[in-house]
Amino acid sequence: MLGAPWLPWGRCARPAALRWLKRCRRPSCAAAAGGRRVPPGEAPRRRWCSAVSEGGTKWVKPAGHDAGIQTYNSLSRSKEPLILGNADVVTWYSCGPTVYDHAHLGHACSYVKFDIIRRIITKIFGKEVIMVMGITDIDDKIIKRANEMNISPTALARFYEEDFKQDMEALKVLPPTIYMRVTENIPQIIAFIQQLVTSGHGYATSRGNVYFDILSWGDRYGKLRDIYLDAEEELAADSDKRHIKDFALWKAAKPQELCWDSPWGKGRPGWHIECSTISSLVFGRHLDIHTGGIDLAFPHHENEIAQCEAYHQCQQWGNYFLHSGHLHVKGSVKMSKSLKNYITIKDFLKSSSPDQFRMFCLRTGYRSATEYGDESMNDAKSVLQTIASFMSSATAYMKGQHTCDAVREDILWERLSHTKAVVKASCADDFNTPRAVSAIMDLIHHGNRQLKAVTKEAGSPRSAVVFGAIVSYIQEFLNTTGISLDDRQVALELKHSAMLSSVIDELVSFRVQVRDFALATPETTSVPAEGAILPKEAKQQQKEKRRQLLQEREPLLQACDRLRQDLAVYGINIKDRSMTSTWELGEPIKEPEKS
After folding, report:
1. Which of 245, 264, 379, 401 is the right S-S partner for 396, CB 3.0 to 4.6 Å?
2. DSSP per position, 145-203
3. What is the crossing angle of helices 536-569 and 497-519, to 10°?
């Protein structure tokens, strides 16, 4: 059956496939298949076939266990129920980096968004994720960069691989179950290619190159994008391919290049075959989820599908393809190294925190193109600050440090229950994190309304338990999505931040004592006998004495105010409440630009 892959397994040929076969018997297609070279002086011929890859059924719903999640599948181009082969396990392949330079925010956006999805699948839906990430450590770009730096491609790749892993750790992206390097799997890649050649889906040329034969795959090519094989495209005169859309499985070595021995001579793998082989080595003939940026859908993922389904002789290799949208700089231009408009992850983290970037990612759907700029980042920072401020106020209330009117517990319990339902439903609906965050912010809004402070002790019954439940749930959601509000540890980003946190605690405590002393009403020096009426003159004297004492203590209050204002410059915000003072971390005040 491998000789006629356009025939579905165990079925008769579809009419579309028969029409394709008849059209491809025309002389123009036969010439293209024969690989005839262009004689000198003759105009370059057009290699084309009038077939259109209709693809038939692009996606077949797999048998298995419903995970309770609807996810957008690039194969069907619609939301589909996530069906797993194993009820408790998700098999997941992620395209890793080509390690020749520092990773930038465009890469970070994709990896952080898929990390959030992985955490949701694990923590909300209780599935074990087995993730494999391939590391492309041999490539044209790596060889070019290594030559420019006068070092070996292997040394360059190892340096930037470690650099990438450090960036992911800094962004709190969970590592895959296993990393797999291309250069450590060359024998397996060669064996994979040999099987494709043997089955008629690959061919070697006299130059030592090996290509995947698109025409051998017929209308099954084009699952992620409609492919028009009849488009009139010229094949370059110096090309040794049979068809313009054939792609490299093995590249013949160039002089002085890193290479390996193979049945076709010295060379190295093509890009697409690497991921197919690595994924198949671990997961075999079926895969639950495959992820990557939208720019990888074609041709990379399309070619992976063709290779794997031809190799495994299966109707559907990967069941779900999830693609993240581009990150754009302001002005709707894709962030990329080729355009030189990128920001490295390391440079970004000099001025912003991992949590701020993660909230930035949560605020946009993973499939959406996302615009990066000061406005969008400030929005993410504001959301985090609102959450932190509420958590601080709710905690202060629970400790008896914050006074407010009687709390409507029934309203808060109802809002908490509603929020939990909305968040789970949102996560089950194609991982709709913007809607989930919106639900959390709505809950905080209702909590803040109940925490509206009063200046004097209200004497109302306390409702600490409901606020404890709200705080606990918000912490759980943030932990699920990889955000930590342990701001005394994260936002300060200092080696001894725990010690500094204790110092700030002591400083604020001392300021509270000074402020309480300055505001205290002075005691009278003489107490009149019971029933005696204090003379008017004595009352006036006491009043004057209080005024003088408060006036004398005014510099203490002014000093307390100055300390609060000065610390705010560094992002340390002191809040004076009715009975005490608390502190929290926010954004440092930026230095005014010099004119």
Report:
1. 401
2. HHHHHTS-HHHHHHHHHHHHHHHHHHTTPPPPSEEEEGGG-HHHHHHHHHHHHHTTSEE
3. 160
Task: Give per-residue pLDDT as tens, 87-123.
Answer: 999 999 999 999 999 999 999 999 999 999 999 999 9
Q: Which residues contact 84 (CB under 8 A, 6 or more apart)?
A: 64, 65, 66, 67, 90, 127, 288
Is the previous residue joined to 299 through a cis bond, with omega within 30 degrees of 0? yes
The tens digit of pLDDT for each residue in 134-151 reads 999 999 999 999 999 999
**415 pLDDT more than 60:** yes
d(CA 251, CA 260): 10
More confident residue, 584 or 11: 584
Q: Which two tokens stand for residue 218?
A: 């017929």
Q: Provide the pLDDT confidence category of residue 497 given band limits of 50, 70 and 90.
A: low
Q: How far apart are CA 291 and CA 293, in angstroms?
A: 7
User: Backbone dihedral region of 571: left (phi > 0), alpha (psi from -120 to 50 degrees) or beta?
Assistant: left
Task: Tell me which residue has tokens 């800094």.
Answer: 170
Identity (one letter) of the amino acid at 188?
A: Q
Mean pLDDT in residue range 40-62: 51
For the four alpha carbons of 328, 332, 334 and 335, in that order, the dihedral sign comes to: negative
Which tokens go with 281?
């080595």
What are 491's two structure tokens? 């936002």
| Segment among 6-10, 39-43, 326-330 with least mean pLDDT | 6-10
- Asked if 177 and 118 touch (Cβ cutoff 8 Å), the reply is no
The residues, any chain, with a CB within 8 Å of residue 201's CB and separated by 6 or more, are 2, 5, 212, 213, 216, 217, 306, 310
Q: Residue 120: which residues within 8 A CB-CB, separation 6 or more?
A: 427, 431, 480, 481
Pair of tokens at residue 318: 């990967």
Q: What's the pTM value of the predicted model, to 2 decimals? A: 0.79
- Say what percent of the chain tops pLDDT 90: 61
Helix, strand, or coil (residue 68): strand
| Residue 13 pLDDT exceeds 70 | no
Handedness of CA 179, 185, 190, 194 (dihedral sign): negative
In angstroms, the Cα distances linking 61 to 41, 83, 92, 169, 316 are: 53, 8, 17, 36, 10
pLDDT of 169 above 70: yes
Q: Which DSSP letter does residue 344 get?
A: B
Neighbours of 492 (CB within 10 A): 19
CA angle at residue 165 from 163 to 168, to 5 degrees?
A: 110
